[in-house]
Every structure is written in structure tokens, then in C-alpha cells.
Amino acid sequence: MKTTITLAGAVFTALWFTGCANSTKLKSTPDTLAVQVINLTDAASAVNDGIVYDGTLEAEKTIDLSFQVSGTILSFPVKSGDYVKKGQLVGSVDETIYRNQYNGQLAQAKLAKENYTRVNEVFKKGSIAEIKMLEAKSNYEQANSAARATYQNIVHTHLYAPVSGYIGNKSAEAGAVASPGQPVLQLLDTRSVKVMVAVPESEINQYKAGTPATITIEALGVQPLQGKVTEVGVLALNGSANYNIKIALPNNNLTLRPGMLCKVSFGVAAGRNAKITDAKEIIIPVQAVQVDEKGTNFLYIMNAQHKAVRKNVITGQLYSKGITIKSGLSGNEQVITSGYQKLADQTPVIASK
């Protein structure tokens, strides 16, 4: 009886250890992780065929309009986004006080003129000294000048568009009190526009005035536009490591509007012998590259067996759309760009859609 119990216990113990072993074996198998990948042979962003930057359209001229006299705004017949023509009335203030001042000074000028006429006639007869005639003449001229100056205040109660363009920011409405020189309206001259492109400090010296540029505006769905660099910034933007490049574009049909987003790629300026970048250079998203404790740059690719494989790489120049890989990749891999935080070498992975 004791032998039977011992044998049963041994069988039970063996089965228990086998189950634990199987359980341990199952748990040691890593779970399949979902990741995002880019195929270096297919992705247009992977191989650099000309650096592409993000740009923004701006009006060639931005004019702040303001009244030259103070007063209550009576009318403001335009709103943001309206297109106005040169000479069109865009606002007016109450002219009553200036009209009254002008009428009073005009009456004084007429009186001074009549006085000067009488004194001049007497002077011609030799009955008074010349100095009296000159004083009367001076009084008339001063009164007349004061009246003309006051009349200009009446003229300035009306605000006209100095050029044709679109109304931008509108900072006042009818009923508000205008102050001399305080902007109340922004006028955007869009007969031509400029493309503003922020370029990193490592690339800014590759461009100069005259460098050709190709601009693609997805919102319009038109053929790419051609322009040239007109200005290269010399001051960093807001303390960053980027500099502005300005590209001029004609806007004959007025379809280009300030604020539109675009993509910009540059060609080679006339007289330059070297290409800007190597057309075979591999560029991948910056976030795909990691650094280990030894300072080695590495990333993960997905192989044919759907496993993550670690690749040590040497990185190159940083561009606006990614970082170059100088060595470590052949150009036909599937690079894991998202979900790599939990990966280890040979981890099973599946590409998510």
C-alpha cells in the first residue's frame, strides 16, 4: 500500500513539473507586437531627390491703415476677407467738428481778404504807409493757410485704400473712437506674394538669391509653380536655429492667398557646381533612430520572417523631413518607425495599417 502511494505521488509530481515546464516555455515566447514601418524602396520620403520644406504664403506688402484725425467712426463698410480696389472708401469718421472749424476759419480768411483789398487800394493812393499794407496782406495769407489746413482735416476723415488688395485684420468697428495713427485696418497687397520657408542653420548657406525653387500648393491642386529666392535671412527666427528664405511669386489671377501652406524644393543656383545633396542619400524619420548606453545609434527593421532586427547605423545630416543614414542600411529594408520602444532583437512583429 505504501508503494502504491509513493508511485502515485511520483507520477503526480512528474506531471506537475511537466506542466510548469510547459507553462514556463509558453511564457518565454515573446508576444507579437504591432509596429509601423516604411519601405525604403517604395517610400518617396525615404530617398532624397531634393529636400522638401514646408512653406507659407504671405502678402508681398502688408499695410496698416489708420485715420490721421480723431473722431467717432461713422462707417466701416468692409470686413475681413473683402477685396477692395485702389481708391475705394473703407471707413470714415465724424467730420462735424472739423467742418465747423473750417467754416469759422474760412469766414476769417474772407474778412482778412476784404481788409487787405481796402488797405491795398488806400496804399496805392499813397494815403498810408507800406507797412500797413504788408500787415494786412500777411493777415490774409495766414487766415487763408489756416483754412486750407483745417480743410485737410475734413479730407482725412475719410479713409481710402492706397492699393488694391484684401482686407486682413480689422481692429475697429463703427461707433468706436479713432485716434490719429492707430491702425484700424490691415490691407494685404496680393498682386504678388512671397513664400516664407524656415531652413535649418546647417542648410542655410546652401542657398542664395537667385536659387530656383519649385512650389506646390495642395489646396489649389494646380501644377507646381516656379519662383526664385529673393532674400536669405541673416537673423535666426525667435532664437531658434532656423532662418527664413523668401521666394517671390506672381499672383496675376489672385488665386494665391496669404496663409496657404505649400511644399518647397530648391534647385541649384546659377554658377554653382556642386549639388545640394546626394540623390541616393537615405533619409528616415528622426524618431526611428535610438541611442544605446554606449552612444551607438541604432534602429529596428522588420525582416522577411516578421521579426525585429537591430541595425547599428551611422547618421548624417539632419533635414526638415528626417535624418540621413550614412551607413548601416542598404536602402531596401523595412524600417520600423513606430512601436519600437518595447522591441528587442528578434521580437516577432506585424506591420499595422
Topology overview:
Blueprint: H1 2-28, E1 33-39, E2 52-66, E3 71-75, E4 83-84, E5 89-93, H2 96-124, H3 130-155, E6 158-160, E7 165-170, E8 177-178, E9 183-200, E10 212-216, E11 225-232, E12 242-250, E13 261-266, E14 282-284, E15 290-291, E16 297-302, E17 308-312, E18 314-319, E19 322-327, E20 334-338, E21 349-351
Helix pairs in contact: 2-3
Give a description of the structure:
Among the domains are: 33-49 and 280-351, conserved putative lor/sdh protein from methanococcus maripaludis s2 fold; 52-60 and 189-266, Beta Barrel (Elongation Factor Tu (Ef-tu), domain 3), CATH 2.40.30.170; 95-155, Orthogonal Bundle (Helix Hairpins), CATH 1.10.287. A hairpin with a 5-residue loop joins β15 and β16 (297-302). Helices cover 23% and strands 36% of the residues. The protein has helices at residues 2-28, 96-124, 130-155, and strands spanning 33-39, 52-66, 71-75, 83-84, 89-93, 158-160, 165-170, 177-178, 183-200, 212-216, 225-232, 242-250, 261-266, 282-284, 290-291, 297-302, 308-312, 314-319, 322-327, 334-338, 349-351. It is an alpha+beta fold and 353 residues long.
